[in-house]
Amino acid sequence: EQGATLPGMTVVCGDSHTSTHGAFGALAHGIGTSEVEHVLATQCLVQKKSKAMQIRVEGQLGKGVTAKDIALAIIGKIGTAGGTGYAVEFAGSAIRSLSLEGRMTLCNMAIEAGARAGMVAVDDTTIDYVKGRPYAPKPEQWDAAVTYWRTLHSDEGAKFDAEVELKAEDIQPQVTWGTSPEMVTSIDGFVPDPSKESDPTKRGGIERALQYMGLEANTPITGINIDKVFIGSCTNSRIEDLRAAAAIAKGRKVAANVKLAMVVPGSGLVKAQAEQEGLDKIFTEAGFEWREPGCSMCLAMNADRLEPGERCASTSNRNFEGRQGQSGRTHLVSPEMAAAAAVTGHFVDVRQLN
Questions:
Q1: CATH number for position 348
Q2: How far is CA 270 from CA 299, 308, 338, 342, in A?
Q3: Considering the domain boundaries, does residue 270 fall inside one?
Q4: Is 140 exposed, middle or buried (CB count within 10 Å of its CB: 0-12, 13-18, 19+)?
Q5: Does 173 reside within a domain?
Q6: What's the total number of domains in the chain?
């Protein structure tokens, strides 16, 4: 927001989701506490060079399919260890068509694929976003900065250690069913049946996840009722996320079986802008709580947590056991899908609501 993160920078912070800043064409990754101390003392950090992976998403995304769905579809394909040891570049026409906010969501989730960092090459979208922000280069330095930024892309014919390709048209709205982001399927899918899994390790993993999540094999995803909804986190709490969720909530009411539906903006500026656009009124009239910015229910901050056995549609990035509260059950979705679940009381294809 402030323009402090600029293309070509190396950005580190004591939070794994620092990778979000890769959306700007920066190399951004989380580091440990002692490494933070080292950076503050020396502005240097010893790192082992990562391998390079390119994930290309070509084509046009369907209606109701977002950057969050791309991220979950990628993780579903390569697994939570698929990116281990790699820095990932997200490329292809579908990625180019994403806003800077969408790219931030995608790079944020690179960590959930096991990658060290995720990034998107600089283009007009990047430059237009940075322009005019408080810490962006001043007019007299601007042209020189842009000239340099435009060099920040992979060369034609560049060789990668690994390449992955997805077709945008194949990606549907995604919902996780288990206790890891890779345990994901599309909204028209079903909870998997462990008896159909030949690999004993994978079968055991599915069985444990279903037991924790309180789900029966072969249940349609649309048949899963929810108790709480959390729209927020560093993955999906930017202004476009709130607009998308508000478009679904408008003129509707939170379902009777949903005990709590909350919207937590990503920053003070996002909150102010949302209020200026009247989004807060749309949410509160629909029965959502409109909260102050913060991490909130993403990781069970303060009282924002799930009680044991409660099921949540969440726009955050991790669905591990206990992440949102002891014995809480988390399903990761996009902001539109979370809002749709809030007003219907269960997971539903957002494309059928509009």
A1: 3.30.499.10
A2: 20, 32, 19, 22
A3: yes
A4: exposed
A5: no
A6: 2
Domain of residue 215 covers 207-352
Res. 302: pLDDT tops 90: no
Q: Are residues 16 and 149 in the same domain?
A: yes
In this structure, are 75 and 136 located in the same domain?
A: yes
Is the pLDDT score of 284 beyond 80? yes
**Local structure of 69: helix, strand or coil:** helix
Regarding whether 339 and 289 lie in a shared domain, the answer is yes
Q: What is the mean pLDDT of residues 276-299?
A: 97
**pLDDT digit string (tens) for 202-237?**
999 999 999 999 999 999 999 999 999 999 999 999
Is the residue at 284 inside a domain? Answer: yes
What is the reported pTM? 0.97
Question: For residue 306, how far is the Cα from the chain centroid?
Answer: 20
Residue 147 shares a structural domain with residue 247: no
Nearest Cα neighbor of 68 from 179, 181, 223, 169 is 181
- Residue 137 maps to a domain: yes
Find the mean pLDDT for residues 337-353: 97
- Residue among 99, 111, 345, 142 nearest 243 (CA): 99
CA 231 from chain center: how many Å?
A: 11
pLDDT digits (tens, 9 = 90+) for 60-87: 999 999 999 999 999 999 999 999 999 9
Residue 118 confidence class, pLDDT cut points 50, 70, 90: very high
